[in-house]
Write a structure and sequence with these properties.
With about 475 residues, the protein is α/β, with parallel strands linked by helices. The protein contains 14 helices and 19 strands. The mean pLDDT is about 95.
């Protein structure tokens, strides 16, 4: 089989690559395992030196790799450039903090006195070779936020990237080697999805992490469970954006536009369901719709483009099916709802706002992975919480209120891995990231993320 870079702005196949055969995959597995045996004994100072060098190289490459990402999956060039620089920040963050995040823990003497120990400590030791199955929507960031902590913890990594971003995948496979990491520390496996299970089941692979669709997550979790291997899953999201009467409506509406169309609307943590108190519904809906309708759709390489194409033709078709189903059942199209005129060659779709949603519509329960927003009117706080939780997903959430009692109620009752007040959800190296329900389990980033792929080891010494 082959993998290809297909420009989503034109539908043109730019470059194709042959997938690795079994022999090449075996070489990568062997090298990853052999390298881990030595790399796990390196000190934090050496790992930090190498990761800082990788950050330096990526910073120098930011413009070129940004253009590659835009070419392969269509995000606006400015967003791609920002993604590359965010990766640089995360590398430096972990290079500077990993040693303290993974420092030995010493239980209080009073707590362990009756254990008979002269000394007890907890040490974080690396697990081994970790398989990372990564998506196309943030093709650099999703990988680096795994690779940076994993390498600093002493693990080695194998990357199975999405098949439509092979050039970004190959770049990542070389970046860490260029920085001085041994070749086996981080390698790209240029393979299709059908080859993942065999790699995951290989006894040299200790664990896996996946960011992607729910079906992909279920498949990896099932195989890993059968092998009793650790997994971290970050799957889909249908994040609520709740607006209460005390909110700054103008700011909420402006932020809502960005929160819905970031990355051309193809983000798990993009706000997708806009749940607005009836007292401010009309004012917010008007401002939000005007903002969505004013966005410029076009060539993602141009500086004045706000929204580029969807990454794949199938992705656009899936989005159109959700919108068409809702409209057929009575949803109101406030703006958009079609392919933009004059952009027939690529996989473009207009920023869209739908109102009048009901539970019978597919979009009410399924993730809309593109620039389509759904508007809901609610009568009070209780209904806002119920509507926000009325989804199989639970990745993150956004709430706009200046009422402290409401803040505490949302923190208590929203079913999500994150709650962002008076702003939009964003990932940051210092903040744990992950979800509940069908959005997955485990956490990335922060100290929680770096410890996910560690053997948390109790060290006990007998008393005299």
């Amino acid at each position: 089989m082959s993998l290809a870079t297909v420009n989503p702005a034109t539908g043109e196949t730019v470059r194709t690559f042959d997938a690795m055969g079994p022999e090449a995959v075996e070489r990568c597995l062997a090298e990853a395992a052999e390298t881990f045996a030595d790399y796990r004994t390196t000190g934090f100072a050496e790992r930090s030196r190498l990761l800082l060098r990788a950050a330096e190289l990526l910073e120098a490459d930011a413009e070129d790799i940004a253009r590659t990402m835009t070419l392969e999956m269509g995000k606006p060039l400015a967003a791609a450039r920002a993604e590359a620089l965010k990766c640089v920040k995360a590398m430096r963050w972990y290079a500077e903090r990993a040693e303290s995040l993974l420092a030995d823990e010493h239980p209080a003497e009073a707590d362990v006195r009756d254990s008979g120990a002269a000394g007890v400590r907890v040490r974080y030791r690396p697990l081994g070779v970790v398989l990372a199955v990564m998506p196309w929507n943030f093709p650099l960031w999703q990988v680096v936020r795994f690779a940076a902590p994993a390498l600093m913890a002493g693990n080695t990594g194998l990357l199975k990237h999405a098949s439509n971003v092979p050039q970004t995948a190959l770049y990542l496979g070389e970046l860490f080697h260029r920085a001085g990491f041994p070749r086996g520390c981080f390698q790209t496996l240029l393979i299709g999805s059908g080859a993942v299970e065999a790699v995951l089941r290989d006894p040299r692979v200790a664990a896996a992490t996946l960011t992607g669709s729910e079906p992909a997550g279920r498949a990896v979790a099932a195989a890993a469970g059968d092998e009793v291997k650790k997994t971290v899953l970050e799957l889909g999201g249908s994040d609520p954006f709740v607006v209460m009467p005390s909110a700054d409506l103008a700011q909420a509406a402006r932020t809502a536009v960005t929160a819905r169309v970031q990355n051309n609307g193809q983000s798990c943590i993009a706000a997708k369901r806009f749940i607005v108190h009836t007292d401010v519904y009309e004012e917010f809906a008007r401002a939000f719709t005007e903002g969505m309708a004013a966005l410029r759709v076009g060539d993602p390489m141009l500086a004045d483009t706000d929204v580029g194409p969807l990454a794949t033709e199938q992705g656009r078709a899936d989005l159109e099916e959700l919108v068409d189903d809702a409209v057929a059942q009575g949803a109101e199209v406030r703006c958009g709802g079609r392919r933009p005129p004059g952009l027939e060659r690529g996989w473009f779709y207009e920023p869209t706002v739908l109102a009048g949603l009901t539970d019978r519509m597919r979009i009410d329960q399924e993730e809309a992975f593109g620039p389509v927003a759904t508007l809901y009117r609610v009568a009070d706080l209780d209904e806002a919480v119920r509507r926000a939780n009325h989804t199989p997903f639970g990745l993150s959430s956004n709430v706009w209120t200046r009422d402290e009692a409401e803040v505490e109620r949302f923190v208590r009752d929203l079913e999500a891995g994150g709650i962002f007040f008076n702003g939009m959800t964003a990932s940051h190296p210092a903040l744990p990231f992950g979800g509940v329900k069908r959005s997955g389990y485990g956490r990335e980033l922060s100290g929680h993320g770096i410890r996910e792929f560690c053997n948390i080891t109790t060290v006990w010494r007998a008393g005299a």
